Amino acid sequence: MRIARQGDDFTIGLSLRGLTVTAAVLAGIVAGLGVYVGVRALSDPDDDGGRPADPAGTWELAPRFAVDTSGRPATGPAAARVTIIEFTDYQCPFCRRHAVEVLPHLLARWGDSVRYVVRNFPNLVLHPRALPAAVAVECAHVQGRFWEYRSVLLRDSIDLSPTGLHQAATGAALDTAAFARCVATRATRPVVALDLLDAWEAGVFGTPTFFINGRRFPGERALADLNEFVARALSD
Predict the structure, then answer these.
(1) Burial code of 94-128, b = ≥16 C-beta within 10 A, e = fewer?
(2) In what order do the strands lie in the sheet with 2-6?
(3) Alpha helix (H) ranges present in the chain?
(4) Is the separation of the CB atoms in 219 and 52 below 8 Å?
(5) N or C: which end of the chain has fewer CB within 10 A?
(6) Mind listing the pLDDT tens digit for each residue in 26-39?
(7) Distance of alpha carbon 130 from alpha carbon 113, whole angstroms
(8) Do residues 172 and 140 lie in contact, with contact meaning Cβ atoms separated by under 8 Å?
(9) Are 212 and 60 in contact (CB under 8 A)?
(10) Overall pTM surpassing 0.85 (yes/no)
């Protein structure tokens, strides 16, 4: 990504599969995808989360996709036998519940066998604060403090207002001046746009959506279901 000042504005260029596009174009992509995703969510309640009717026993039938993880925030060794990618929305209650109540137990059980990667999928129609939150989280990632910021942001006492996003930066011990500049200039918005594009290509229409060694599982999942899927991935 290249960021350059021109007058009072920032021009952001991002190499996207061999094409160079501007921040304005990416903003249009974000908006267009958001409308598309929002319409899907309004027509299908499961698209904004919720647990599918058949949470288990779908390992063999789950469609497979190659989802890029380069440069994205992750925990666990790069050589782990199982990679879990979560597409998330910070205003989605199902995503928050997963992050707070399920994920810590999942990671504690499987340890170095699992690498967990987080990517963005803000619903721009149903969740108006999801995109600013995603931009803010990526600004924290620029400082190498993604997980610290995300942990603070997911506390019940923090909202997703501009004030709340900046309070979380203080709580996560970020360089708050650099964070404020990053958020104000939307410097990480192209990263969020690329996440949306990749999600769309992989058939993501709601959050959370998980990819476990490439197999796609939409909707909120119980800890037992995720443990089963990890075990199946390890046995493949």
Answers:
(1) bbbebbeebbeebeeebeebbbbbbbbbbbbbbbe
(2) 2-6, 9-16, 19-22
(3) 23-43, 93-97, 103-110, 130-142, 146-153, 162-171, 176-184, 189-201, 223-235
(4) yes
(5) C
(6) 545 555 554 444 44
(7) 31
(8) yes
(9) no
(10) no
Residue tagged 């790069």 (tokens):
78
Residue with tokens 């925030």: 73
Amino acid letter for position 103: L
Tell me how far apart the alpha carbons of residues 47 and 29 are, in angstroms, rounded to a whole number.
20
d(CA 200, CA 235): 29
DSSP 3-state of 153? helix
Q: How far apart are CA 166 and CA 158, in angstroms?
A: 10
| Per-residue pLDDT reduced to its tens digit, 52-69 | 444 445 898 999 999 999
Instruction: Give the span between the Cα atoms of 138 and 147, in whole angstroms.
Output: 10
Amino acid present at 82: V
Which domains, ranges and CATH numbers included, belong to the chain?
2-235 (3.40.30.10)
Residue 221's SS3 state is coil
